[in-house]
Amino acid sequence: MNKLITASDVVAQLRDGMTIGIGGWGPRRKPMTFIREILRSPLRDLTVVSYGGADVGMLCAAGKIRKLVFAFVSLDFIPLEPYFRRARQSGSIEVMEIDEGLLMLGLKAAAMRTPFIPTRVGLGTDVLRHSPAIKLVDSPYDDRQWVAMPALPLDVALLHVDRADARGVCQVKGPDLYMDDLYARAAARTYVTADELVEAEAFGQGDEARYVFWERAQTTGVVHAPCGAHPTSCAPLYGFDVKHLKEYAASAKEPGGWAQYCERYVACGEEEYLRRVGGEAVVRKLPLPVF
Amino acid sequence: MSDTTLVDTIICAASAAWRHDGEVLATGIGMVPRLAASLAKLTCNPDLMLTDSEAWLVAEPVPVGPRGEYRIRRETHMGFARIFDNVWGGKRHAMVGPTQVDRYGQANISMIGADHRKPKTQMLGVRGFPGNSMNHANSFFVPNHGTKVFVEGEVDMVASAGYNPARLARGWGFDDIDIRLLLTNLCVMDFGGPSRQVRLRSLHAGVTAEQVQQATGFPVHVPADVAATAAPTAGQLELLARLDPHGLRAAALGA
After folding, report:
1. What span, in angstroms and rounded, lies between the C-alpha atoms of B175 and A77?
2. For residue A142, what is the nearest residue in chain B, using CA coordinates?
3. In angstroms, rounded to a whole number, what is the distance separating the alpha carbons of residues A259 and A280?
4. Superfamily for B3-249?
5. ipTM higher than 0.90?
6. Is residue B255 predicted with pLDDT exceeding 60?
């Protein structure tokens, strides 16, 4: 089976109002090639589920989001995401604000095809007050009430991986998978961008198969996108682009700043984007973050 | 007291938070809590587990700032999914820096304002606070003790649960919540007052109980005898110099 596809063909399959899960974490391993492709499209009214960073910020800036399911949106070294803040403070997006672990449980429930997972997480907090869709349930085994975290089924998951083959075998060698495997399993369709495209035989070498975290049946389509996570990181291949993310964040302070950012980095297309941010060789030398 | 002396005093007082915890994950978010957890492992509780703030448990605390030739000593993989496994099992004591804390110990890092649909100031979001608060011990560090942080009513968004009877679900009690120390630039407090009221434990040099009360939006229980926060020992200062080789903690109180 050959699952190779282009990013624009993937985005052409998306529909207004869909629920889209975005892999990665904050400024790390975000499928930014897909995000920029969505920015170039007329798509709108999306429900986005994400451990958010610049992916959520850019989609907010472009007015693509109707509802956001999130626990945080942050660029880490720039703690507060400027375009997400603006969207929130203008009341322009609906939100389901939940705990990081609740988001994980929601994906897990969808992946397991159960309606909810019981947990103590969220008890006693305003997470329940502001999201009345999250119910308390009685336990058949004790006398306590438990939070029933509802499944978060996704129409589509968008992920970025280190390498993949044409059949959809995906490899992540960074020290943290984040919740990408759960996104892949919670979604009806999962599309990945891969920094490197390899032959199937590559996974037969040494321990390579140990870095494959979901079965190829969970992968619908594979896009070859070198540096496709830029300006976020894809450890160990490259770190996040501090200079670029600062420029992006600073654009929010200028009148017309987002339009200028788009003009320079989005409208030009991916090939020209990579050239404008310094080229593949430069991106691959971006240092890994140290905390 | 100079800022450097004050921050060292706070870090050393904070490190005592983990003294009796045994073998748990000590997570310190931010400069002061992270140095405090690191110091605790090197002094009062060598059994503590620490991370590199990325994806590994480490055998020894990682110094803050640029590392030069230093290489972390990995012990166990600890990606985010496994952090939640640890949290839900309860073997963790986190020290975090909330933007608001109320009389119940409810804390907020999410947003400021009365309307959640349209915050006056959007901050991070609740992050892992809800899960932390119902699963393991938590302490708070507040660098700017005042009524904007220690608010009169409830915090604007209850991100972590506290000792608030009105918010307990059926079958749950105060013993399911474990808030330990509140460390600030003025004092150390805990929830050891009557009915889990906030109680003054110790005052930093030059600070009075009246000052603390004035800077707090709710009544603080003040025992008859309030100790002075212990000054750092020479041994502790030596360790701090190793853990913070670039002296980054001098700016940790935002002076």
Report:
1. 36
2. B171
3. 25
4. Glutaconate Coenzyme A-transferase (3.40.1080.10)
5. yes
6. no
